TrEMBL record:
Belongs to the prefoldin subunit beta family. One of its GO terms (biological process) is response to cold. One of its GO terms (molecular function) is unfolded protein binding. InterPro entries: PFD_beta-like, Prefoldin. Pfam families: Prefoldin_2 (PF01920). Keywords: Chaperone. This is Prefoldin subunit 6. SUPFAM superfamilies: Prefoldin. GO terms for cellular component: cytoplasm; prefoldin complex.
Length: 126
């Protein structure tokens, strides 16, 4: 394969790697948001568990506080925690896949660079 073709292949793979790295960074950002939300919801759940059964619980809906049943509030928070936990697992799985692809792309780039260096070394000897 000619040096120019290898150079083009190298650029293509480098661009793919950059795009993948951006996707990994996005995944980390989304993951961080979900982690914060999970912590907040777990805190709310602990607070709800401290309340008496006859305590008044209010939910903010837009600009209005609406009275909510304690059991219903508990159930809603638990559902949110389950959803966020599932999303975090999904993001972890996606992240692992992307990191494997990233490593494979890095190896591919390294091999092309070595081939280019070998070609250049061959030309230097000639």
């Amino acid at each position: 394969m000619a040096s120019k073709e290898l150079q083009l292949e190298l650029e293509t793979k480098a661009n793919d790697l950059r795009k993948l790295q951006k996707d990994i960074a996005k995944n980390h950002e989304v993951r961080k948001k979900y982690t914060v939300q999970l912590g907040e919801n777990e805190l709310v759940l602990k607070e709800l568990e401290l309340l008496n059964d006859d305590a008044n619980v209010y939910k903010l809906i837009g600009p209005v506080l609406v009275k909510q049943d304690l059991a219903e509030a508990n159930a809603n928070v638990r559902k949110r925690i389950d959803y966020i936990s599932a999303e975090l697992k999904r993001l972890d799985s996606t992240l692992n896949d992307m990191e494997e692809k990233q490593n494979s792309k890095k190896e591919g780039i390294l091999k092309i660079q070595q081939r280019i260096q070998a070609l250049q070394a061959g030309k230097a000897k000639a």
